[in-house]
Structure formats: C-alpha cells, structure tokens
Amino acid sequence: MTTSAYKRTILITGATDGIGKQTALDLAAHPDNFVIIHGRTEEKCIATKEWIGKENGNSSNIDYVAGDFAVLKEVAIMAEEVERRFPELNVLLCNAGVLYPRRLETKDGMESTFQVNYLSHYLLCNLLLPVLSHNRSNVIVVGSVLHTWPSLDWADVMAEKEYEKYLQYSRSKLMCHLMAFALHRRMNIARQHVNVNIIELGKEKEPNNNGKLRTTSALSSSMSTLSICRQAGNLAQLIEGPCLEKISGKYLDPSGKQMRSGSDATDERLQERLWSYSKELCHDYM
Fold this sequence. Notes:
Elements: E1 8-12, H1 18-28, E2 33-39, H2 42-56, E3 62-66, H3 72-85, E4 91-94, H4 112-134, E5 137-142, H5 165-189, E6 194-199, H6 225-240, H7 243-246, E7 250-252, H8 268-281
Parallel strand pairs: 1-2, 1-4, 2-3, 4-5, 5-6, 6-7
Helix pairs in contact: 1-2, 1-6, 3-4, 4-5, 5-8
InterPro entries: NAD(P)-bd_dom_sf, SDR_fam
Organism: Caenorhabditis tropicalis
Pfam family, one: adh_short
C-alpha cells in the first residue's frame, strides 16, 4: 500500500482504547494524515477502524496492524509488516501501556508491565529505524511525571521479589524515558533524520507518605471522556504542528514546552546500561 499522498503516515501503538483511540480519531480527521491503528488483536483493530470511519465519515486514510506486545515475536512480525506495507511511515507514537493489579508473566517469561510498556517499544523502535530514518521521522514516546518517583532495581527488574502495580508502572515509564534519550543520542551521532521526544500528557500525583499512589488523572480507570479528549487533542496538535520538526531529545508538556526530566532519566550511564540489557533480551529478533 502506498501512502505517499499524505504528509504524515502515523503508527499509534495501543490505539484501540483510551487516549490512543481518541488520538487516532483526531488525527484521521485531518486529510494530511494516514493513520495506522495498532491493537492486540485483529478484532479490536477492525472495530476501532470502523468506529473512526463512522465518526469521521471516512475510513480511506485508516488501516491497522495487530500484534500482542506481550509476545516479542508478534512485535517483530508486526514491524516487518509495517515496513512492507507502509514504507512512507514517518511518525511513530509509542502509546501502548498496561497497569496490572497483580504480577503477570508474558509468554517470553518476563514481567508483563515491563515488556508491554517498555521492552516491546524498544524492540519496535529499533526494528523500524531503517524506514523511519529514510523518511525524516518523529518518534514520540508517551511519558509520565511518575518516572521521577522510583529508581530501577537491577536486582529485581522483573519484580519477582516485590510487585506493586504503581511502582512497576512508574519504573516502566522511567525505562521509556531512558530509551528515548538513548535513541535520540544514537540518531544524533549517526546523523539520522529521526527526532525523538517524550510527551507528558497529564498531571499524575506523586506518592503519598506511605509510598502508595493516590488516584491519578492519567492512571485512573474512570478517566473522564473530557480528559481523554483533551489529552488526545494535545497529542494530535503536537504531531500536526511544527514543534516536533525542530527539536529532539526533549521532555515536553502537552503544549510542547520543555520540562525537566528526573536525574535518573538523564543519566547516560544508566541509559546505556538499560539499552544493553534490553538488546540482550531482544537478541533473537534484532
């Protein structure tokens, strides 16, 4: 399939629910955009495509790819499909994420939050670099202010000794920040035309004195429709605007203003340690 008639060919991970779904709707409403929906199953992708087509009155600029981020092999197959079917891809929005109340393991034998929120995005970004580099692209990683809360526990990355859902979620977001900065540096050194930035969507609260997180706007299962629409609208405006064309390696608020990252996130030694660790975990697919 050729999408050369469009200014932007956009892949959104986790686009069948929540903010990802609403962002896909908003972006698909613009005639300059071709939107690729990603979801865990083909059934969910088809349902989302039909819903967007009905809402916008047009589905000609929407397609989908399915792949379960809890299975690295499916991520690799999906990346190959994207590269083959959508060679004009020039925007990758890393949005997919989970928050599990109890510890689960994937088919790859890894903790689910770690793999779905972070490692599968690491693998996908690396596998799509050839096409992204060719097309002068933007990689946008959905971040979280919660990345400043924890440090990584290298003795328990998979949370086998201790699992607390908000702690593991926050650590997965710290890993996403570390990955984005490391990827930016690699693209800069190699003089590749790929901008990599992290976007903060909402105001999540810090842990209370007991080390537990209170209900947060970005994590609450009862997030209002208005909040989802507002955050998705911010994302769509950033993607369609000029801001991301000019900067890379930044942590941005919903308006595109630079924010200060946590000290762990900007630690290059920590970035490289995580990159090497992740590369080893994904070695069968890279």
